[in-house]
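Newbie here. two chains, one complex. Structure please?
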Amino acid sequence: MATTAALNALSLDEQSFADRMIAAYAGTPGALLSILERIQEHHPHKYLPPEVLEYVGDRMDIPLAQIYGVVTFYALFNLEPQGEHTICICRGTACHTRGSRNLLQRLRLELGLPEESEEGADKLCVTTPDGQYSLRTVACFGQCALAPVVEVDHAIFGHVNEQALRREVEHLAGRKA
Amino acid sequence: MADKISVRIDGEYVAAQQGQTILEVARAGGKFIPTLCWLENLSPVGGCRLCIVEVSGVGRLLPACTTPAQDGMSVTTNSEKLTQYRRMALEFLFSERNHQCAVCVSNNHCELQSMAQRLGVTNVRYPYSFPKMRVDASHERYVLDHNRCILCTRCVRVCAEVEGARVWDVSGRGIHSLIVSDMNRPWGDSKTCTSCGKCVEVCPTGALAEKGFGVEEMVKRDRKVRRLAGRRGGHV
């Protein structure tokens, strides 16, 4: 029953990609992690829709609850569609003392994202409604000498202040246009 | 034939077999070690940290349910230090979720509650976190109340190991951990759940309960499930 539902929802391309990944990692320990990572990377919006998880669980005979447990345990997996650009702000101790909270709040204001919720204090991942930007936090980049550190689309910037951050975001918007 | 070994438990020599855990040996010798997540004939996880014991020559406390007994081992199952740590573990459990005994279906039939009474927990020294937790009443016969859950994973294991349905697992991490059925959909919508009720019977608290019971009315009967689990050919 689960199979037919998953088959209907997945495109042929997605199915064959998932099948290839499952075959490629078959028999290796921790295969599920690698498979899900590759599938997420393959997805245009860099996330794992429920149909994909159902399909993988069905093919690998892994219970859905276990797959869901794995996907929610590791921060690298996304269950929501990600924005075109990802801005990642470090919330480590060094960056915090150099004002990373201000950067985060400034960016939230500029992107029109809601205020910090109660539980989102340690791990944050929000995407703007237009799907352009995803804002994330990370515990530490390991670049504390450059604090505060911000990662914009996999490029790391050190000693970031509000003006620099705004410039980078505007640069992203300009590149898109 | 398994190898015979000899273990000292609280000063007494106890005969045991290679491969038995400290908890199994101690129980066979009539010793009481408090447990919450452990259940007879299910695979042990060592999550609740109530069964910690002192092993001489080992600097840290070891969980009795997952530590294999070794020949010549000397184990202390009860001491001032152990009681202190066991109480602490219980207090953390109480402060983590909303355990209001007075309005709980499992009041007076709760393993968490009776363990706290037995170990003399009279108050909780840590601030309660009062998390906002959901109650899943979508199943036609059972209720899942996250407020009472201590994440012992007995339901996860009994479902996977005895029933074979593999409905439950733990999602998230740390303080945000939650028991989920299938893909975090309502329990009632689960396609894998067989409604056997084994998870409900083995749940040590009122987190999993049958519908139609009021305060103090939910009495768990895990004896049959334990016996059923014992008929399997070894742990999964």
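Moderator note: Residues 7 and 70 of chain B are 7 Å apart (CA to CA). Chain B has a mean pLDDT of 93. Thread marked as resolved.
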